[in-house]
Amino acid sequence: MAHAARWSAVVFVLLCFLGAAESRRNVKCPSGCTCSKETLICVGASQIPRTIPTEINSLSVVNGSVAEITEGMFALMPSLQLLLLNSNSLTAIKDDAFSGLSHLEYLFIERNKIDTITKNAFRGLRTLTHLSLANNKIRFLPRDLFFDLDSLLELDLRGNSFQCTCENKWLMMWLKNTNASVSDVFCAGPSDMKGKRLNDLPIPPGECISTDFVRHQSIPIQSMSADIFSFKEDIFVALAAPNSNSCVIMEWDHIEMNFRKFDNITGKSVVGCKSFLIENHVLIIVTQLFGGSHIYKFDEQQNKFTKFQTIEVFNISKPNDMEVFQMDGNWYFLIVDSSKAGMSTLYKWTDLPDRNETGFYSYQFLHEWFRDTDAEIVEVDGKFYLVLASRSQSPVIYLWNKSTLKFILHSDIPNVDDVVSVKAFRVEGELFLALACYIGDSKVIKWVNKQFTEVQALPSRGAMILQPFTFADRHYLALGSDYSFTQIHLWDTETKTFHKFKDIYVQSPRSFTVVTTDRRSFIFSSSLKGKSMVFEHVFVDLSL
Ligand SMILES: *[C@@H]1O[C@H](CO)[C@@H](O)[C@H](O)[C@H]1NC(C)=O
Ligand SMILES: *[C@@H]1O[C@H](CO)[C@@H](O)[C@H](O)[C@H]1NC(C)=O
Ligand SMILES: *[C@@H]1O[C@H](CO)[C@@H](O)[C@H](O)[C@H]1NC(C)=O
Ligand SMILES: *[C@@H]1O[C@H](CO)[C@@H](O)[C@H](O)[C@H]1NC(C)=O
Ligand SMILES: *[C@@H]1O[C@H](CO)[C@@H](O)[C@H](O)[C@H]1NC(C)=O
Ligand SMILES: *[C@@H]1O[C@H](CO)[C@@H](O)[C@H](O)[C@H]1NC(C)=O
């Protein structure tokens, strides 16, 4: 209050002086304004004078309709020490608005409609001691706005609409540290902050950090799945591309920071393309709807993949997905069969050179008469469970019997139908499954007391994938959609459920796969009908 009273007094004295005195010298006073020896006042003006007599050191333009201050508007008035623009119609103060005012000490812009002030608006005002922006419509101020105000003694920001959010975090810190006296400033929002004093809000650092997914690369290849693998410090992706009848291998270019073509395994109706490293060799299993399924091996001399083995597909009719895993030191993979006429089949790696048997051989046939869609292997307390999802029944769980070395049917997951993908993940040590349903509700379920219970349902509109992934302690779930945006959900550590976080657009997404390289994190999304996309996971500082 005291500061405001003092400032008003300054203005009052000024006005009285002007009213009483006539200009004694024959100076050129702008029309519509009143000039005295050192002061000039324009009441009700619509513009700011372009030039003023040189001996004037205070300029007031009050109760007018001045709507903007343009850059350098006061450049021809270097002698000004006081500038008062109260009760006009200003809505913004832009960069370098006061350039050239190298002796300005008092600046009053009160009772206008200012809602925008740009970062360099007060640049160069090194002698300014008093600044008032009281009674405007300011919600946010840009960081370092007051950087040049080395001499500031008093600042009045009352009567504005400050939002006490991350964007104003810097202002709260600045208010705490400044040596200038500042009038009390209150938060106008958000609702939980309303009425609190901006000057002494404790904002813990880190609270204003969020993340985002930014488009990084789009790849003109339609793909069913994307499998990431690394070999000798290089990162590759194997894309199952049914429309171009191939399994496309791309390599991460560490200089260009994107994926470029590396090799192309051609086939017929390729639906799966899955890599694994075995005894320092990269192998890729390529499943096809027609023409059988094959394993390719990376030939370092030729720098390309060459055929290594044709696998038996006795009981496979319509391969849908593949899962590669290791149990008790042995390598297996499972081809999930989505036809009633076929059977999901487990293959085991065998290395018997004397018998001319080095490769994968069918080992166990599972689940007759069901249209399986996806499989996931989970290890709980040293036991291996295989979760097999199916369109024609609830997901079933097989348990690996360590004495017979076969999977035996163990249980099912009731009340979830028509599951198209199943993915396991852990949060804070607990095991969850993410089950995607095409239309209806996709589910997040949790392993409690040796069975799965529902945690959350996520409405799905054309979802073929519900993919969990984690970056920097943040757990996400990407729910793909054929009809709309893919929704990324973020785990909330307090409610222990996922909340909608962000939408990204991928046409007919089929997989989301994490790529971490060069200290950056990406998510690779395959698209069955459009371009495959790479999104970067970035941190965003919400404070301006
Ligand atoms: C300010 O301007 C308004 C109209 O624009 C007028 O009605 C009012 O009398 C003026 N006030 C002073 C003190 O000049
Ligand atoms: C405030 O004044 C003290 C003492 O003169 C000085 O050390 C400090 O840097 C000043 N702080 C700011 C933010 O100018
Ligand atoms: C892979 O090679 C086949 C045959 O040469 C070609 O038709 C197809 O377009 C290629 N795919 C890509 C993605 O380059
Ligand atoms: C699976 O394939 C094997 C090998 O051809 C065959 O002996 C067996 O009968 C098949 N099983 C079923 C259920 O079709
Ligand atoms: C192993 O298989 C290859 C190709 O099928 C054949 O040429 C070779 O004679 C076989 N060797 C033995 C020991 O059976
Ligand atoms: C594994 O199979 C053996 C032999 O059939 C059986 O006795 C045993 O109970 C099975 N173990 C489990 C955990 O089901």
UniProtKB/TrEMBL annotation:
Residues 160-209 form the LRRCT domain. Residues 1-23 form the signal peptide. The keyword Repeat applies. GO terms for biological process: inhibitory synapse assembly. Keywords: Glycoprotein, Leucine-rich repeat, Repeat, Secreted, Signal. InterPro entries: Cys-rich_flank_reg_C (IPR000483), EAR (IPR009039), EPTP (IPR005492), Leu-rich_rpt (IPR001611), Leu-rich_rpt_typical-subtyp (IPR003591), LGI_related (IPR051295), LRR_dom_sf (IPR032675), WD40_repeat_dom_sf (IPR036322). It holds the Pfam family LRR_8. GO terms for cellular component: extracellular space. Gene3D superfamilies: Ribonuclease Inhibitor. It is found in: Secreted. It comes from the Eukaryota. Its main location: secreted. This is Leucine-rich repeat LGI family, member 2b. It comes from Poecilia formosa.
